[in-house]
Amino acid sequence: MKSILTAALMAVGLTQPLAAQDFPSGPVTIIVPYSPSGNTDVFTRHLAPYLEEQWGQPVVIDNRPGGGSMVGTAQAAQAKPDGHTLLITTSAFVTAPAIQDALPFDPREDLTPVANVGHVSYILVTNGDSEFNTLEEFIDASKKAPKFAATAGLGTTTHFAIEKFIADSGADVDVVHFKGGGPAVVSILSNETDIYGSSVSSAGENLKNGKVKALAVLGNERIDALPDVPSTGELGFPDLEIKQWVGVFAPAGTDPAIIRKLNADVNTALKNEAFVATVTPLDWTLRESTPEGFAEQVDAELNKWKALAVKQGIKK
Amino acid sequence: MEFLGNIGLGFSVALSLTNIFYCFLGALLGTLVGVIPGLGVLAAISMLFPLTFHLEPTTALIMLAGIWYGTTYGGSTASILLNLPGTPANAVTCLDGYPMAKQGRGGVALFMTTVASFFGASFGIILLTLFTPVIAEYALRFGSAEYFALMLMGLVAASTISEGSAIKGLAMVVLGIIIGLVGMDTQSATIRFSFGVLGLLEGVSLIALAMGIFGVAEIIMSVRRVKTADIDPETLKLSAIKPTRDDVRRSWFPMLRGASMGSFFGTLPGTGPSIAAFLSYAVEKRISKTPERFGKGAIEGIMAPEAANNAADQTAFIPTLSLGVPGSATMALMLGVLMIHGVAPGPNLISSQPELFWGLIMSFWVGNVILLLLNIPLIGVWVRMLTIPYHILFPSVLMFICIGAYTSGFSTLNIWMVTAFGTLGYLMRIFRFPGAPLLLGFVLGPLMEEHFRRAMVLSRGDFMTFFDRPISATIMALTGLVLIWSIWSSETVRKRRAPPEGEVALARDATDA
User: Per UniProt, what is one Pfam family of this protein (chain B) (predicted)?
Assistant: First the structure.
């Protein structure tokens, strides 16, 4: 009986496909799995008006913080797959599952990547008065006397960035977790820890007035905000291409035509000059992507961080 | 001279018509949010946050800050009149505020807490104006070991916060700590007591716990009492807010001590007004010559915590503005406002954005004066709240508690938690287990654990870290002294209560004869 019902419902669904050109037919809710005022929330709030303009429908931002972004992500995974509920989240989408194994959703099966909209670069920072001025000096010093690295929390991208750095450089560093980027920066300022993978904005003014100094940019290229700071690629670590990216996801089962339309609309918004002018000062590097390309990236990163978590013994 | 120039600059910004308007709006909203139990400042500011996109950053901050400190002013109202804390930071004010209201001195209590709030806030603002850069540097010397030592001292000092059985008090502290363990461990990602509920990964919501234990439990108890309280119409008159000379005399030092403690805890990121209020109450009770008056309407028991939480509200801006480090989720929202407008918070903010920095600080004076003027005439209105029949008042309060709990995490799970904690709180009342120690354990326990674990990682497992570092060692020594003193004083109290052998014998003889 149940299967007949399901079949009937599916048939109804098939006979009335949600035409992508009619999308969206009502308000679109974007779930942001972080608190208001966080980087991701601010980015989404800046983006929303440009999507509203294209769609002629209101865009509602729904903050669902908790569980290192996993609470809101789970909520999006359970939403109706009609494109009217979307998720905008960070690379925590691929790092958190590497250490949390009791998630009520499968990041591969239950959400469909739509677009990777851009990223924030990380810089490795240390106290302004510390005795090391280059990354090499830091690695050598750590081999003589072990050092401490701060993170913004277990399972965050800052955590995995440091673990990957330790794995690749052989530096002798113990990881200490803080609750968020703020306390982690304080621990650098107060010399409690020695290194932290920070975004330029959370290091902020402290970087300009020399209270903290940048040793390297994580990645293969330098960044515009800090043209004098070498990239880890230049320093001989080609695999440290680690960015805090932000991406749009839709619940799995959303019509592929709608996914393509969403991707195109987001990419259009990203090209809007007014939008670019607002978010570039906030450290964002915008980029265009295809749903397929982003899906491949998500899949590869899920594997990569899971393997790192096992190798570094992060998960039991 | 430069200093006076800065003050002048600050006032010129704060006294612009737009800024006064938004300051008033913030203070008014804050008072309302504070008076209504359950609605929290974080929820209120989160909801208004998107609006600040369209305001000047200074104006936006002035408004949000007004809500932030306005809440603490308003929060004591429901604590005093209904035994329902408006915010967790006002929970301790229930202990003596509600007995005062029952004695028909509700108006006095409301008037005096407004004075204490203004005093505490002024104390905080003066510190903020004069010493921001110095204090920020000092706060940096507090590492994980120091935080742990400080929290341990707090727990030891406040363990006798409630009346009655010490064993029951201690049991509640432990229960609070256990509830605080729920969620994901910060250093190992081990999930504890979450029973597979994803929403519990972040731990139990403070609002849900405080509102359940204090709010819902109180409502259930009142329903059982059935009869509405008899209210003496005399106590509703505006003249009934006049404190006695004795009240004023007793209030000075508690206010001063409360304001100092509050200022101290405010500057430390991660602590804040709730802890400040609890500890200043504990201190007052400890140093009082008549600790038995506490819990029965002692005016010191409302003055100290209300001065402390307001002072902490103001000094919380010190690390936020000078280091760019938010001490709490609410402060993180304030920083968010700055970042949205492209202002990077940090040590240079004072020199690079003097209009913003000084304008904001001077607006605190404007806001606090507004709150004073707003609150004193309102006392009459609030006291009249007691004349609302319970069958209308309590369902509305319950509704607000539910709204507040929901908005504190945008999750229905919080409402279930309010229900669960309400039941727990009701059972606790029946068996006479005190609620305040539970809340204290819940607030301090997870902080202690977090800092202890981190201190252990940083010392590579050496316990001596708490005694090697000078600040931590000093606090530890003080903790030891507090412990010895409390054992000694409880011993003397016991001796005093048990009359010496001879007297007993005499008394027996007298009755025999």
Answer: TctA
